[in-house]
Write a structure and sequence with these properties.
Layout: H1 13-25, H2 32-40, H3 46-60, E1 65-69, H4 70-73, H5 81-85, E2 91-96, E3 99-105, E4 114-117, E5 120-121, E6 142-148, E7 163-168, E8 178-188, E9 191-208, E10 211-234, E11 239-240, E12 244-271, E13 274-302, E14 307-336, E15 339-374, E16 380-382, E17 394-422, E18 425-449, E19 466-469, E20 479-481, H6 483-491, H7 501-506, E21 509-526, E22 529-550, E23 555-577, E24 582-593, H8 597-600, E25 604-609, E26 612-617, E27 625-637, E28 642-654, E29 657-661, E30 671-679, E31 682-695, E32 706-725, E33 728-734, E34 742-751, E35 755-764, E36 767-770, E37 781-783, E38 786-798, E39 801-808, E40 815-819, E41 825-830, E42 834-842
Parallel strand pairs: 4-7, 22-25, 26-30
Antiparallel strand pairs: 1-6, 2-3, 4-5, 6-7, 8-9, 8-42, 9-10, 10-12, 10-41, 11-12, 12-13, 13-14, 14-15, 15-16, 15-17, 17-18, 18-21, 19-20, 21-22, 22-23, 23-24, 24-27, 25-26, 27-28, 28-31, 29-30, 31-32, 32-33, 32-34, 34-35, 35-38, 36-37, 37-40, 38-39, 39-42, 40-41
Keywords: Cell outer membrane, Membrane, Receptor, Signal, TonB box, Transmembrane, Transmembrane beta strand, Transport
Pfam family, one: TonB_dep_Rec_b-barrel
Subcellular location: Cell outer membrane
Length: about 850
C-alpha cells in the first residue's frame, strides 16, 4: 500500500487532522475498499479528530453500528474496553467494585451479547458465563471497537442485543512508522497507595522482497496495577416486610488488580490483491481481594431503632483470582478480477484460576440483648462495646476453596464473493461456511475446617488471629482477621480429613459444543440504495457431562446429556441516502443466544428434608433464546463535525430463560422443591436511541473550541415468568434483567492546540437485578439509578509530549440496590474518587 501523499496542511496540527478527517465525512459514500484505503491514512489528533474518524466508519457501514476508535477511547479517563464503551449510544456497563466489567447493549444483559476479536469469538474465563469481561482487555491494545446492532447473514450468531467486535491495531492503520508511550500513577481516596500504569505501542511498515511498504508489524503492551477499596453494607434481601430485618452485614474490601496486555500483529500485502495477516492477543487480569465482614444475625426480625438478641460473625474472605484471555487469528484475503475470497482460522482460550483460598473464616459471639441497627439506605450497627473487641469472638469454622475454569474456542471459516456489474446497479453475491468447537470445563474443591478442639487447636479467640482495626468509613467495625494467621492454621491440618466431597464434585462439569454454519447473501447497490438480504443456517451439537448426587442414599452417579438443534436466521438490511448528508436505515434480522453454562450445568442434587423430596439441578436440554429484530432510523451528518440520529428498535424474544420451581408437575409431581432453569414463552424489548454530536463554529472566539456530545436511549421490556402452587399455574410479568429504562451520556469538550478538557456524565436508570421471590414482586431486587461524572485534562507542552490528569467518579457516586422499595437496602457500596496523573509521548 502506498504511503500517504496528502499535501501538508497549513493549519494548526489539531485543525489539520480534523480537516482531513472531516473531508471524508462530507464526501459521498465510497465503495468499501476505497473507504478503507481512505480512512487508514487519516492521522487523528485530539477529541475532534477521534470523533470524526469514528463517525466516518459508522456512516459508511451497511448496517447499524456504533464505533469507538482507539483515539476516541483515549479521550476519556477509562481504564479498559468496557468502561470506554459505556460512552456510546445504547450501551451501558455492569460494574464490579465500581469498575466497568461487562457490556449491555440496548438494555440486554451481557450474556445476551457476543464479543469477537477480529472475527473470532472470545472465550469467557468465568465458569458459569458466556459473557466476556472486557475489563480484562486494556484499551491500548486495540485499533477500534465496533458494536453491530443489526446482524447480517455473514456474521456468526450468538447475540440478541449486539456483537462487540474488537479490532486489533495494524501498522497500516497509519501511514508512517508510529510509536506511543505513556506512564501514569493513580490514587484512590479509600486506599492511600499509588497505582502505576505503563503502556506502549509501536508499528513499522517495511519493504520486503522488492515490494514497497508490503510488511506491517505492530506491537502493543500494557501493564497496570490498581490498588483501591470499597465500603459496603448489605442485607442480601433478608427482609420480612411485616416484622423487619433478619440479617445484615458490614463489609470492607481491600483490592489490588493487575492487568497485563500484549498484542503482536503482522500484515503482509505483496500486492493490491493479496493480503496475509496474523493477529494475536494475550491479556491477564489478577484480582487480589481481602474482604473483612461483620455479619449480624438477629434472633427475631426487627426494624431500625429496635434492640434485641443476635449472633455476630466476624468473617474473612481472601483470594487471588487470575483470569487470562488469549487469541490467535491467521488468515488471507485474495482478489481475482470480480472474485474475492478469504480463509481464516482462529483459536481463543480463557481460564480463571483461584487457588487454595479463604472462602470464609468465621468467628462468632452471641449477645442476649442490645443489638440492632439504625438507618435504611446505609445501615449502621448498634451493639454493646464488646462487639467491637476481639476477645469475645471464637473461631467457628474455616471454609477453603480451590476453583478452576477453562474455555477453548476453535474455528475456521471460508468466504467467497463475486461482484456483478449491471445496468441497474452493482450486485455482489456472497457465500461462506464456518465450523467452530467450544469446550468448557469447571472444577472445584471445597474444604470445611471445624471442630478445632478435637483437632488439638486451643487458640480459638479472635484476639489470636487479629490484624488491627478495620478502616471502614461507614461506621465502626472493630478488629480485622489476619489472613496469614488463618493460612498458617489450616496448613497445620490434614486437608484430606476436612474435604467436602459433595461440593467438591457436584460443581465439576464439561460441556462441548460443535457448531456448523453456512450462509448465502446478496448485496445490491444503485444510486442512493443499498440492500442486503440472505439467510444463515447453524447446526449445534452439545454434550454435557457432570454428576448426580443422591443425598438420601449418599451415592454419586454420572450424568451425561446430549442434544442438537438447527436454526435458520434470515436478515434483510436496507439503506437509502436521502442526500449527501442524510441516511435512512431499516433492517429485519434474527439472532440467537445459547444458554449460559450455569444454566446448562448437568449437576443434580437430590435431598430429603422432613420426609419431603427436594432437588436442585441445571438443565442441559434448554433451548437457545431466539429473536426477531426490527430497526428503523435516520442519521444526519453536519457540514462540519457533527451528527444527529434517531433509531427505533424492537425485539421479540422466544424461549426466555428463568429460574423456576418445577415441584408439583411432570417428573417432580411428588417433590416439595425442584429448582432449575426453564424456557419461558415470549419476551419483548423495544426502544429509541437518540444521538447528537456537535462541534461549535462560527463564533470567532473560545466557543469554537467546544465539542458537545449527548445520547439517550429509552427502553422498555416485558417477559412472563410462571410457577405452580398446589397444582395451579400462576404467572406474572417482569422486565428483562439488567434493562434500564433510560441510559444517557453527556460530555462537554474544550480543545486548543495545547489544552484538551473533557467532562463526561454517564447515567443509567434503575433496573431489575434479580427476581428475589418468583411468586412475589415485592421481593424483586433493583439496582438504583446511577450517575457518574468523570473528568480528564491534557496539556501538550511540546510536540509529541502530553501531560494528562484524570478524575474518575468525580461525584463519589455509590452503588445502591434495594428489595422492592428504596428504603429496603439490598446492598450499598461506595468506592471513593480516583485521580490519575500521567505523561504520554507520541511521534505525531
Amino acid at each position: 500500500m502506498k504511503k500517504n501523499t496528502t499535501k501538508p496542511c497549513s493549519l494548526s496540527r489539531v485543525a489539520c487532522a480534523v480537516s482531513l478527517a472531516f473531508s471524508s465525512v462530507v464526501t459521498p459514500v465510497l465503495a468499501e475498499a476505497d473507504v478503507q484505503e481512505y480512512i487508514e491514512h487519516i492521522e487523528v489528533v485530539g477529541q475532534s479528530g477521534a470523533v470524526s474518524k469514528a463517525l466516518n466508519r459508522q456512516r459508511n457501514a451497511a448496517g447499524i453500528i456504533t464505533v469507538a476508535s482507539t483515539d476516541e477511547l483515549g479521550q476519556f479517563p477509562d481504564s479498559n474496553v468496557s468502561e470506554a464503551l459505556q460512552r456510546l449510544a445504547g450501551l451501558s456497563v455492569e460494574r464490579d467494585q465500581g469498575e466497568g466489567r461487562f457490556v449491555r447493549v440496548r438494555g440486554l444483559a451481557p450474556d445476551y451479547n457476543a464479543v469477537t476479536y477480529n472475527g473470532t469469538q472470545l472465550a469467557a474465563p468465568e465458569a458459569g458465563r458466556r459473557a466476556v469481561a472486557l475489563d480484562v482487555i486494556p484499551s491500548e491494545l486495540l485499533e477500534s471497537v465496533e458494536v453491530s446492532k443489526t446482524l447480517t447473514p455473514d456474521m456468526p450468531a450468538g447475540s440478541l442485543g449486539g456483537t462487540v467486535e474488537i479490532k486489533s491495531l495494524s501498522a497500516f492503520d497509519r501511514s508512517n512508522d508510529f510509536y506511543s508511550f505513556s506512564a501514569e500513577a493513580g490514587y484512590n481516596e479509600l486506599q492511600s497507595k499509588t497505582s502505576p500504569k505503563l503502556s506502549g505501542v509501536f508499528s513499522k511498515i517495511l519493504d520486503v522482497a522488492g515490494e514497497t511498504d508490503s510488511l506491517g508489524v505492530a506491537l502493543a503492551a500494557s501493564f497496570a496495577e490498581r490498588k483501591f477499596g470499597s465500603d459496603n453494607v448489605e442485607t442480601g434481601g433478608s427482609w420480612d416486610f411485616d416484622e423487619g430485618l433478619e440479617e445484615f452485614e458490614l463489609r470492607d474490601y481491600s483490592i489490588s488488580r493487575k492487568r497485563l496486555g500484549l498484542a503482536l500483529n503482522v500484515d503482509y500485502r505483496p500486492g493490491n490483491n493479496n493480503e496475509y495477516y496474523l493477529r494475536t492477543l494475550y491479556s491477564e487480569f489478577s484480582d487480589d481481594e481481602t474482604r473483612q465482614g461483620l455479619v449480624v444475625e438477629l434472633a427475631e426480625p426487627q426494624f431500625a431503632g429496635a434492640l434485641g438478641e443476635a449472633e455476630l460473625l466476624r468473617s474473612l474472605k481472601q483470594r487471588e483470582e487470575t483470569q487470562t484471555i488469549s487469541a490467535v487469528v491467521v488468515g488471507t484475503k485474495q482478489i481475482s478480477g470480480n472474485w474475492q475470497w478469504s480463509l481464516e482460522a482462529g483459536v481463543s482460550k480463557a481460564d480463571e484460576d483461584t487457588p487454595f483460598n479463604i472462602a470464609a473464616a468465621d468467628f462468632e459471639q452471641e449477645f442476649d440483648a442490645g443489638v440492632g441497627f439504625n438507618g435504611s439506605r446505609i445501615l449502621r450497627l448498634a451493639a454493646p462495646a464488646e462487639a467491637y473487641l476481639g476477645d469475645g469472638y471464637e473461631l467457628k469454622e474455616v471454609e477453603m476453596g480451590d476453583t478452576y475454569a477453562k474455555e477453548t474456542e476453535r474455528n475456521i471459516r471460508f468466504d467467497v464473493s463475486r461482484e456483478i456489474m449491471q445496468a441497474k446497479g452493482s450486485l455482489t453475491l456472497k457465500t461462506g461456511a464456518k465450523f467452530s468447537q467450544r469446550e468448557k470445563t469447571a472444577a472445584e474443591d471445597v474444604w470445611l475446617f471445624e471442630d478445632f478442639e478435637d483437632a488439638g487447636i486451643s487458640a480459638l479467640r479472635l484476639a489470636d488471629y487479629a490484624g488491627g482495626n478495620i478502616d471502614y468509613s461507614l461506621s465502626n467495625m472493630g478488629p480485622a482477621v489476619n489472613s496469614n494467621s488463618i493460612y498458617q492454621l489450616v496448613n497445620t491440618l490434614n486437608r484430606d480429613d476436612f474435604i467436602d466431597e459433595v461440593e467438591s464434585q457436584i460443581n465439576d462439569y464439561q460441556i462441548d459444543e460443535d457448531i456448523s454454519a453456512a450462509y448465502v447473501m446478496a448485496q445490491w447497490e444503485r444510486d442512493n440504495w443499498q440492500l442486503i438480504g440472505g439467510v444463515r443456517f447453524e447446526h449445534e451439537k452439545r454434550d454435557a457431562a457432570g454428576s448426580r448426587y443422591d443425598a438420601i442414599n449418599e451415592v454419586f452417579s454420572a450424568n451425561q446429556v446430549s442434544s442438537s438443534d438447527d436454526y435458520w436466521l434470515p436478515a434483510v438490511v436496507a439503506r437509502y441516502n436521502l442526500s449527501e448528508q442524510s441516511i435512512l436505515r431499516a433492517a429485519f434480522s434474527t439472532g440467537l443466544v445459547r444458554p449460559n453454562f450455569e444454566q446448562l450445568s448437568p449437576a443434580f442434587i437430590l435431598e430429603e428434608d422432613d420426609g419431603e423430596l427436594e432437588a436442585a439441578f441445571g438443565n442441559p436440554q434448554l433451548k437457545a433464546l431466539t429473536t426477531n429484530n426490527l430497526d428503523l432510523g435516520i442519521e444526519h451528518y453536519a457540514d462540519k463535525l457533527g451528527v444527529v440520529s434517531a433509531m427505533l428498535f424492537y425485539k421479540e424474544i422466544d424461549n426466555f430463560i428463568y429460574e423456576a420451581d418445577l415441584a408439583g408437575r411432570g417428573d417432580y409431581v411428588d417433590f416439595a422443591k425442584a429448582e432449575s432453569f426453564v424456557n419461558g414463552g415470549k419476551a419483548e424489548l423495544y426502544g429509541l436511541e437518540l444521538n447528537a454530536i456537535h462541534k461549535l463554529s462560527g463564533f470567532g472566539n473560545w466557543l469554537d473550541n467546544l465539542l458537545l456530545s449527548a445520547n439517550l436511549t429509552l427502553t422498555d421490556s416485558a417477559a412472563d415468568i410462571a410457577w405452580f402452587d398446589e397444582g395451579t399455574l400462576f404467572s406474572r410479568e417482569v422486565a428483562l434483567p439488567s434493562q434500564s429504562d433510560k441510559t444517557a451520556n453527556l460530555s462537554l469538550g474544550y480543545e486548543t492546540d495545547s489544552i484538551s478538557l473533557r467532562l463526561a456524565a454517564n447515567y443509567k436508570s434503575k433496573y431489575l437485578a434479580e427476581v428475589g421471590d418468583i411468586t412475589d414482586s415485592a421481593y424483586d431486587v433493583y439496582s438504583d439509578d446511577h450517575l457518574q461524572l468523570d473528568f480528564t485534562a491534557k496539556w501538550t507542552f511540546t510536540r509529541g509530549m502530553q501531560l494528562y490528569f484524570n478524575v474518575v467518579n468525580l461525584n463519589d457516586e455509590p452503588y445502591y440496590a434495594y428489595t422492592g422499595r428504596k428504603p429496603y437496602n439490598f446492598q450499598y457500596e461506595q468506592y471513593g474518587r480516583t485521580v490519575v496523573l500521567g505523561v504520554q509521548i507520541t511521534n505525531w
